[in-house]
TrEMBL record:
Keywords: Amino-acid biosynthesis, Aromatic amino acid biosynthesis, Lyase, Pyridoxal phosphate, Tryptophan biosynthesis. One of its GO terms (cellular component) is cytoplasm. Belongs to the TrpB family. This is Tryptophan synthase beta chain. Tetramer of two alpha and two beta chains. It holds the Pfam family PALP. Its EC number is 4.2.1.20. Its cofactor is pyridoxal 5'-phosphate. The beta subunit is responsible for the synthesis of L-tryptophan from indole and L-serine. It catalyses: (1S,2R)-1-C-(indol-3-yl)glycerol 3-phosphate + L-serine = D-glyceraldehyde 3-phosphate + L-tryptophan + H2O. InterPro entries: Trp_synth_b-like, Trp_synth_b_CS, Trp_synth_beta/beta-like, TrpB-like_PALP, TrpB-like_PALP_sf. The modification N6-(pyridoxal phosphate)lysine is found at K115. The gene is trpB.
């Protein structure tokens, strides 16, 4: 039984894990590989080398159980890592629950979210390979901010396509990216073929993450000194994020606590995978005994709970390899909900595979419900959460309320993967009663996904 008064569990810098955990080593069956859209064959290193450095390509396909974190990366991590694990005593008290709620707080990073955990190694490996500039997309602005910061650490240029809707609505994110040294364009832009095509058909297009990816990939593919960086979805991104779960395991061991339920929000799946994979390793090793692991996604962009598990493109223009994932169709444009980081049509192939294999659960939630949990959390714990992790908080709160009825002393863990200081207009809208909820009629959604998938090149073989 842990010390009831303890609020934070901290690790010293020299206790920080020095390896990332690669779940590909331990999966009962491997996930289906990415395919080349032209040949239908699994993509090889050469197909990816126009966009990524060899070290990251090797990590993408590695089946080594652990990968050492380079010393240069550990040095930058130490600016904010190890991150604190908190026990939410005041939230528990407000709920009157016997459950114990823990949150691993990633808002202490330079960008205010978990994304620098992968931005820093991605910039490092690209700089090591002699690359001059990285391009990327950003939705809510979190990833662009993280990559701009990371590029500044390794003397790389950084060029970012920010989804138009968020470029207009979140001027502070743009200023932050520029402060870290990044160059920011609204997407669609007139700088790329993909952007010009969209502007020609809709000059007022609000853009989407899928389109911004097309723009950033197009520019990187044309210049050998320029590479592209993706902030979620891919195996190497989830790998880098496992530092979150490795630290959490050490912190919980310090106080002798054993977790019953892990809930995390999923956009592309990186903070969720980062927190949960090390716990899943322990669970697989224990023959399945261990915490229930549940992903929480927005009801307006429900790739896991209502999407189709199929090969699809990662972007609108179809420039990426085909990924087997839970998808809403690569041209799906989700409602402009405030949790911008969760508005992606697909889901990481690794997370999709785990879901398909029944190793994790998933649920979807509407945004008003989530903001209610976010406000309760802010008033009790003193941190305004980013809109994305309020999805997981809403699930944690619901579970803790269930424990009031059953008297169960359930131990719940979540990743508070970012703070919401630059998302305050979303809280304003919630507090004024201006938020609307959107859910999808299942038939309507299935039809739109099926339509998008018929527009794919037919996969030979
Ligand atoms: C980007 C982002 C997300 C969604 O991305 P994942 O890869 O699913 O983690 C969630 N929360 C925050 C704070 C983000 O910045």
């Amino acid at each position: 039984m842990p010390d009831a008064l303890r609020h934070k569990v901290l690790l010293d810098e020299d206790e920080m894990p020095t390896r990332w955990y690669n779940i590909l080593h331990d999966l009962p069956t491997p996930p289906p590989p990415p395919l080349h859209p032209g040949t239908g064959q699994p993509v090889g290193p050469d197909d990816l080398s126009a966009l990524f450095p060899m070290d990251l390509i090797a990590q993408e396909v590695s089946t080594e159980q652990y990968i050492d974190i380079p010393a240069e990366v550990l040095d930058v991590y130490k600016l904010w890592r190890p991150s604190p694990l908190f026990r939410a005593h005041r939230l528990e008290k407000a709920l009157g629950t016997p459950a114990r709620i823990y949150y691993k707080y990633e808002g202490v990073s330079p960008a205010g979210s978990h994304k620098p955990n992968t931005a820093v190694p991605q910039a490092y490996y690209n700089a090591k390979a002699g690359i001059r500039k990285l391009t990327t997309e950003t939705g809510a602005g979190q990833w662009g901010t993280s990559l701009a910061f990371a590029c500044a650490q390794f003397d790389l240029e950084c060029e970012i396509w920010q989804v138009r809707a968020s470029y207009d609505a979140k001027p502070y994110r743009k200023i932050m990216m520029e402060t870290f040294g990044g160059t920011v364009h609204p997407s669609p832009s007139d700088l790329t073929e993909a952007g010009r095509a969209m502007l020609a058909s809709d000059p007022d297009s609000p853009g989407s993450l899928g389109l911004a990816i097309s723009e950033a990939v197009e520019v990187a593919a044309q210049d050998p000194t320029v590479n592209y960086a993706l902030g979620s979805v891919l195996n190497h991104v989830l790998l880098h994020q496992t530092i979150i779960g490795e630290e959490a395991l050490l912190q919980l061991a310090k106080i002798g606590e054993v977790v019953d339920l892990i809930v995390g929000c999923t956009g592309g799946g990186s903070n969720f995978g980062g927190l949960t994979f090390p716990f899943l390793r322990e669970k697989l090793a224990a023959g399945g005994a261990g915490p229930v692991i549940r992903a929480v996604e927005p009801a307006s962009c429900p790739s896991l709970t209502q999407g189709t598990y199929a090969y699809d493109f990662g972007d609108v223009a179809g420039l990426t390899p085909l990924l087997k994932m839970h998808t809403l169709g690569h041209d799906f444009i989700p409602d402009p909900i405030h949790a911008g980081g969760l508005r992606y049509h697909g889901m990481s192939p690794l997370i999709s595979h785990l879901y398909d294999q029944g190793l994790i659960e998933a649920e979807a939630r509407t945004q008003k419900d989530c903001f209610a949990a976010g406000v309760l959390f802010a008033r009790t714990e003193g941190i305004v959460p980013a809109p994305e992790p309020t999805h997981a908080l809403a699930a944690a709160v619901e579970e803790a309320i269930r424990c009031v009825e059953t008297g169960e002393e359930k131990v719940i863990l979540t990743a508070l993967c970012g703070h919401g200081h630059l998302d305050l207009p979303a809280y304003d809208a919630y507090l004024r009663g201006d938020l609307v909820d959107h859910t999808w009629d299942d038939d309507e959604l299935q039809e739109s996904v099926a339509r998008a998938l018929t527009r794919l090149p037919s996969i030979p073989g």
